[in-house]
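Handoff note, outgoing to incoming analyst
You'll be picking up this chain. Sequence as last confirmed:
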Amino acid sequence: MRTQPLRRRKTRSLGTLLAASLALTFIPPVTEPLTTKAQADTVDRPKVTQSADGLTMSVPGTRNTPGYSVDIATDELALTTERSGKTVLGTVGGDTGGLRFRSDEKWEHATTVTDWTWQSGVLTLTTDTTLDGATVKARLTPEADRYQLDWDVEGGSPDQLGLAYDLSSAGHWYGHGEAETPQGGPGVNQPWPLDAGEVDHETFGPASYNMIDPFWYTSKSTGLYVDTGDVMDVALNKGKDGLGTFTVESPDTYKATVFVESTPLEVYRDYIGIVGKPTKSDAPYEQYAKPLWNSWAQFYTKIDQEKLLDYATDLYDNGLDGHTIQLDDKWESNYGNLTWDPKTFPDPKGLSKKIHDMGFDFGIWVTLWINLDSDNYQYAVDNGYLLMDAKDTSKPCEVTWWNGQAGIIDLANPDAKAWYEGNLKKLMDAYDIDGLKFDTRFFDEKCAPREGHQATDYQKLGTQLADEFDLQGAGIRVHWNQTAHEAGFVTRQVDKGTGWDSLRASATQNLAISTIGYPFVESDMIGGSGGQPAPSKDVLVRWAQSASLMPLMYASTSPVDTNDTTTGQKVDYDQETVDLYREAIETHEKLAPYIWDQVQSTLKTGDPIMRPLFFDFPKDEASYTVTDEWMLGPAVLAAPKLSTGATRSVHLPPGTWYDVNQGTVIRGPKTLKGYAAPLGVTPAFVNLKAKGAAKAVKALKRDDAPAASVLITPDAPSTDAGKPFEVTTEVTNWSTGTLKNAKAALDLPDGWSAKPTGPTTANSLKNGATLTTAWTVTPADDARWASHDLTGTATYNGGDGSQKVSDTVRAQVKAAPGSVQEPYLTADTTSGGAQYAQGGDQFAIWAGGQDLSGWKDEKGVIYRDDAAGEKATVQAQLVSQDSASPVGKAGVALANDLTAPEKGGYAVLVMTEQYGLEFMTDSDGDGKLDTWAGGGSTYHPAYLKLTRDGATYTAYASKDGENWSTVGTAEVASASGSGDAGMVASAANANHPGENIEAVFSGFSVTS
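Most recent structure output, in case you need it:
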């Protein structure tokens, strides 16, 4: 429906306002008096401006926020969020529509903006829609780092409202939690980023069994939070359509918050600021340090007392440590009775004692779902203890689950809660049961909430119930509300399959869960628990290794032997499986002090423990698509092998990384291709500059890695030739013993010298101690302008005799402006200020210049006068170039007179900063470069060569100085006699005023 053109409600005539300005600025009312107009003019606050095609809501940056704007297209409503002039989030246009709603089973959307107001800091928009008789009213309320977007549909009887975004507008998408996907998620698939796969989550709501929250964030540091207690239908890239649709199945006001920050971590923190962070950790230290052993994947429902005792005994006898043996499903006489099945568990008290005697706690699985044929069902019905049916509240709600038909205890009924809780405590007291694993949901959409309650309340009620018991590291699956976030429960994943795909999903799913605000994560049971064939040896071991680098370990399948549920056959693993699984447990236990530090940090900050690399390294673009690595706290980068084979690529972000397997120091960013990861190796790296690094190295360093390391800082020192600079070596003992006769030294290039300004030796170096030595290093006076290896070494005596380790950095000797020597000359056709330097056969030019092309010929030149004959070759190596402009240029040139190109014979061959080669000539002798050849990619060093044969000029380029490629050939008719040859550089700064280029050359030669 289109009723009228855009207008603004006003207190004075629109004509008066338009006369004031074609671009209107409306500032919200000032709530405090201003003493002068000057003060009023300098106050930065959100404002709205109008242009011919729409509105712009601008929010200025602050010390802690980047600022942003929202462009509102008014002819066809679209919201485009920008930061620093670049789009960071945009709604969909066209037939889909950004603000969309369903009416009579048909999707409609907002169209033309017909009215708007900006009052008291709220921008209100009124729009037509594609449905006659219906309008949309949207309200945008800006804050420094976010804006609230609330909107309603008036008329048209909608039953669902939704937002639709162009996923690519915001880069990559994350968050959501456990995602339902066409590829089997969340059980065997969890795309990371979400847009890398497909998400089709039709029942995305607070009562879902999946661990989910209505929060998403992006690689462009925006985020979306939908504030609703209703079920949503969420799709991201469904059918590879590139769209994100976030639909609430309700006609009520759609309430969303859009966050705009500088990093994804800040977006996450904004969200946590709304929903809350853990106030405690439900799990104590021991449950972080040792695995929980649960019977489910080992036996499923084919369990009895003898089998459970054998299981515990095998674990105990093989040194497979753990804090608890937890008996899962099928111990009850019937679901909901909370009494033992006497046939399969004839002596549960004796079973409990034997498990305790082995040093384990004992726990059992429970549920609030009471099967219809259970003894307790009728009692619960008679006393009104069950949730009632949503369609007929006169009868109990009946739900279907994997164990039959059941009713659900109504936790909003105090009597029902007391009855259920009392039965649990009696059971635990009678059989020395230490803790519980709560399973299934606390509510179902088929049921009606108790009067005075909402569906979302049952997450809170379930949280409060579970919080009264020891959950033994199995945690509880509650989500969506503040109580769930603040409770600090361990979060276990939905059941996984037993293959490699499920192992990979367990890693990315933990990243998804932890970055929606549930930081105490563990994978599903190691090896999977989805009723598939038993995991292979490699999957089981790799899963244990992966879990050892997560906050908690949740185990079931025994590495001694297990049962294949699909065949009923016993599966025996070999001794290596047992040994490697035990090593994973021991690694995790050694890492526990570091992990516990992260738990305490999370209680203060709310930051996740297990998190994507880009939370710590937001400027590292490669980190945003890494699917099989994560940070565990600030110091540990986990890169376990999650697929077949014995090698993998490892991406290391910027930083100084200690390889715990090799005992070496690596500087990032760097990708380690073909990193050796046989079955006994779990790749992991420690950021030596991060808090907790020493604890992490102590826990993770392999016994066969060198006892000590040496580290040189800074990572990339630079200086001028002959000018001293400072470096520091740090020799650290990572072993458990004391090292003797530790000595630090520097290996230097020829002609360089180094003088220590501190001790270089230590008679003994205790565990964790560091020998720190400062050095003054002086390059040779004639040191080349290049990177030179500077190697720190450390020798020491340890348990394996005398050892030596080393670390190398590249020290850059830079060119410094000075002068050139005869027979070289210089020329400057820029606005002035070009500088030059020569060191032996090396040359450098610093120059401005708008361009070096047909329209502008502005450059700095180092040249040989009259050195190139009618048959000549000029050649040089372009070592490096650095300019702000992507078309900054540096290379070689020929001309009759390089100081006056209009005299003819002019040609240049240059490399641009980003766009490869350019061979340009002056075809008509007017001094302007008017022919062009080239392209390709930029590379350094670049060997450049121009040949002249009379009037024929040919350009060549090479990456090694031996294998040459022709760039182009041109006729330069104005070439005559002998001429000049030289090196040129132009900043090409027409779009980067004031910026210069630095170009370094080597090996310049002219032959005739």
